[in-house]
Amino acid sequence: MSKLWKNSRFVNDTFVVVDDAAPLPQATPVIVSLKRWRESRGELLALKAPIGVAVDATAEFDVATDDLGKLALIAIPFAKFTDGRGYSLARRLRDTLTFEGEVRATGEVLIDQIPLMLRCGFDSFVVSHAPTLRTLEAGHLSVVREVYQTAVYGRARTTPSFGRVPVLEAAE
Amino acid sequence: MYRYDEFDHAFVNSRVAQFRDQVGRRLAGDLTEDQFKPLRLQNGLYLQLHAYMLRIAVPYGVLSARQMRKLAFIARKWDRGFGHFTTRQNLQLNWSKLEDAPDMLAALAEVEMHCIQTSGNCIRNTTADPYAGVAPDEIEDPRVWAEVIRQWSSIHPEFLFLPRKFKVAITGAAEDRAAIAFHDIGLRMVKGRGENAGKIGFGVYVGGGQGRTPYVALPLNDFLPREHLLSFLEATMRVYNLHGRRDNIYKARIKILVNALGVDEFRRQVMAEWSKIEKPSIDLPASEYQRIAKYFAPLALAPKPNEDNVIAARRASDAGFARWLRNNVMAHKIAGHRIVNISLKEPGKVPGDATSEQMEAVAALAEQFGHDEIRVTYQQNLVLPTVALSDVGKVYDALLSSGLATGNTELITDIIACPGLDYCSLANARAIPVAQEIAKRFADPAKADDIGPLRLNISGCINACGHHHAGNIGILGVDKKGTEHYQITLGGSPKDDADIGSILGPSFPAEEVPDAIETIIGVYTSGRISKAESFLQTYRRLGAKPFKEALYGPSKSSTQRIVEEV
Ligand code: SF4
Question: How far is B113 from chain A (nearest CA, A)?
C-alpha cells in the first residue's frame, strides 16, 4: 500500500492517475502522461481541475511549447532507487525551467534518498516501502543537515527541517 | 593545508551519525543488502574477497602529520597494522569489520578526515599533482580548487547515483603529474590568451579513462574562467547523469557517452545546459574562494643557498645516498629547499603498503623537517613537499632506519600495482606477487638506474586500477582457462604525451613474466641511441616489432599465437 508524504507528513492524494486510453474524469485533479498533455491540452484545461503530468526519466521538456506553468504537478519516477536521472530532471525543472508546482517522486522511494530528493526540488513522495513508511511515521529521518551546495531553490525554498544555510551560500 | 571550521566538523560528524544509523538499520534488517550497498560504498566501505575494505579519502593526497598518525592508529587498532596507498591517493585498510566502521569513521573525523564518496557511483576523491604548491613549474596552486571541488561534491544531492563512478584530477603545473588525461574530467590550470590574457582558468578535458575501453581525455573547454568552475562542472555532470548509459556497467562511464556522441556534440549539450544554469547560485563566491585560498598560502620561507657542503661531501662518498638524492629528491620552488619522495616500493615488498610504524616515522619527519605536510602520490608513494636542503641527510638517515629509503622514484622498480586477486573479488589474477618478482629481478639499483625512467604498471583485471594502459610497460592479469596469465602492453604514458599501451602478443604465465620483462628491457638497452633516450622514446622510435620478435621469435607471427590462444 502506498501513501503520499508531503510537507513532513502523510496526506491524502487528491490526484487520480489516468491512463492514456481512459476517459478524463470531471472536476478531479488528474495525472496524465506528457504525451497526453501535449496532445490534449485544451481538453485537459477545460476540466478546470489541477492537472499533473507523469513523465519518464528520459523526458525532455520543451520550454516553448510545453506550457509547464499551467501544470500543478509533475511526477518523476525512480524505476530503481539507484537510477539517479530523476534528481537531474527535478533540478532542471526547478532551476532552469523555474517550475513552481509540485514535483512528485514515484517508484522506488526509500528513506535514505528522500533528503536528497528534497534538496533537488522534490516536494512530495509516493512511498510504499514498509520500513520507509514506518520511519517517516515515526518522524525520523537521518539527515546530514550541513550542505555545501546551493540546492535548487536553496535560498527561497530550502526546507527548514532539512537544510541549513549552506556554507557557500552564506558567503554570498 | 585546509583546516575544518565548525561547519565542516559538523558536516562530517553528521555523516558519521547518519552512517551509524544506516549500519544499525542494516543489521536490524530494515535495509536489504541491495539497498544498503550504495550507502556503504558512499561511505568508503567496500566488500572484498575476505573482508570489508575501508577506503579512506586523502583529499587530493594531502595529509598532516597528525592525520598520518591517526591513520597508523586506526590501522593498528581495527586492522592489521598496515595500510595500502592507492592510485587515487587514498588509503585502503583491507581487513575492516562492518560493525567497527562507524567507530573508524568517528576516529577519522577527529582529525578532519572521512571516507565520503571513496567508492560508489558518485564523484570520487579529487586527485592532484603531488607537488602542488611547491613545484617550480606551477602556474597556480591547484589544491585550492581541489578543496573547492571536495566541498562541492560532498553529498551533492544530484550526483550520488550517477551511471558510474566519476573521477576528477587537477594540476596547476606545466608538467602533468596527475595523469589528467586518464580521468573522467581532467583540469589543468592555464593562463588565458587573447581576450582572456591576464586571467587564470582551466583547460577542461573529458572522457579519459582506463578499464576495458581505454580513452585519452578530449578537450571540452580550452579556457574556463576559474570562477565558473562549479557551474561548468555541474552542467557537465547533469548531461552525463541524464544521458550516460545505465543498461550496461561496462558502458556507463562518461568516456562512452562522449565517444558515442562525439566530443563536439557532447560539448554542445554541456554548453546548452551551462547557458541555462543560474551561475551565481552555484559558482563559488569570491569571498569563499579567498577563505579557502588562505589555507594554501605559500610557506613563508626564506631562500637558502642551493648548495650544501655536507650534502655534497656525502654524495661523493655514499653511493646509496647519492642515488636516493638523484632519484627521489626534486627541486623546490624556493631555493635551498627540496621535495623529498619517499618510496613505498622497496623491491620485494607490496607496492604502496606502509606499516603503522612507517606511517608514524613519516609523520615524525614531517613534523621535524617537513612543515607538517605529507603528500600521497598516485604512483603509491609518499612525499615530504618541503624539506630544507641542509636537513635532507637527516631525513635520509631516518628513512633508512624505517625501510623507506629506496631510491627508485619513477624507475622500473617503482611499480604501480592494484590489490589484485590477493584481495579483490573482481580480479582475474594476482598483481602483488608479480610486482614483487619483477622488482626483485631489477633490485640491483645500478641496473634500475641504467634503465632510467620507466613506468611499469600492473592490474589484476581489465578494470585497470593499476593503470596498466598508461604504463610504458603495462601488465594485465587475464584468466586463461582457469589459470592466471599476464598480457603485456607497451608504449602507454600517463604524462603530457598521454597514450594507451598496445598489446604485444599472447599472455604469459606468472613465472615467465619477469623473464619477459627482462627480454623487453634488453631490446631497449641494446636499441637505444644513448642513455639519454628513455624506454618510451626508444619504443616510439623502433615500434613494437623488435620487442615482439625478441619475445615471440620471428618464425611464428604473434597473430598466429593469438589465434591459438583464443
Ligand atoms: S584492476 Fe581489477 S583486480 Fe585490480 S583492484 Fe581493480 S578490479 Fe580489482
Answer: 16
